[in-house]
Design brief:
Layout lengths: L1 E8 L2 H11 L3 E14 L9 E8 L4 E13 L2 E11 L1 H9 L11 H10 L13 E16 L2 E10 L2 E9 L3 H14 L5 E2 L4 H7 L5
Antiparallel strand pairs: 1-5, 1-8, 1-9, 2-3, 2-6, 3-4, 4-5, 6-7, 7-8
């Protein structure tokens, strides 16, 4: 179970202000490309699950993940997640030809997708249909070590606009949320609780109001 605090920032000026405030704590910045897949019969989305390939920094890394049963309430996200690294060249081949996802059968996320959600069988008798690529979006993620917490400041670039968000994964989300909110309020940084995931925004085709 992945548990994260997710606070939405209203605009680029607020994102820049927070980036400046956190600059002494900056560790690294990732350039991410997120590509999503579903089954040909919507086996994943019909059960509120999603399969994602995430490419980092000009394909220096690729992570395949399967997320399911996501709940986002009062700025705290909880989601079941299985993820692992794969060779970026294999990931790119899967984007070009989604049926190739069936070739990474030793992936825990893929096996769960096949066994629990019935997607991915590419041969008669294996069960399930194949995969389709849904497209995706890019994300610039600044990572910060702040008060012993790992903060992620996101600038997410969709075809239809850009969203800004700060996230922090923690087993104690309410305490972290309070700490983050106090920091933002003390520095007059506007924010609100995130109400939908980045994937949900992508699929809706419009920015949240």
């Amino acid at each position: 179970m992945e548990v994260e605090v997710k606070l939405r920032l209203p605009d680029s000026a607020t994102h820049q202000k927070l980036s400046d405030l956190l600059s002494p704590f900056h560790i690294k910045t990732h350039l991410q490309e997120n590509i999503f897949f579903d089954g040909t019969a919507k086996e994943l989305s019909s059960k509120l699950a999603v399969l994602r390939l995430r490419f980092y920094n000009s394909d220096s890394r690729c992570v395949v993940s399967l997320k399911a049963k996501a709940v986002l309430v009062n700025g705290v996200s909880r989601v079941e997640e299985d993820e692992e690294d794969i060779d970026p060249s294999i990931g790119r081949a899967c984007v070009a030809e989604p049926w190739r996802l069936c070739s990474i059968g030793d992936s825990q996320g893929f096996e769960k997708g096949r066994d629990e959600f019935g997607v991915g069988g590419d041969k008669e008798g294996e069960g399930g249909g194949g995969f389709v690529c849904l497209g995706g979006f890019r994300n610039v993620r600044g990572v910060y070590d702040w008060k012993g917490l790992t903060l992620e400041l996101d600038e997410t670039q969709f075809d239809f606009g850009t969203c800004y968000e700060i996230e922090c994964e923690s087993a104690e989300p309410e305490q972290v949320k309070e700490l983050l909110e106090d920091f933002l309020k003390e520095n007059a940084v506007d924010y609100s609780y995130s109400t939908v995931s980045k994937f949900a925004i992508f699929r809706s085709g419009k920015l949240p109001e």
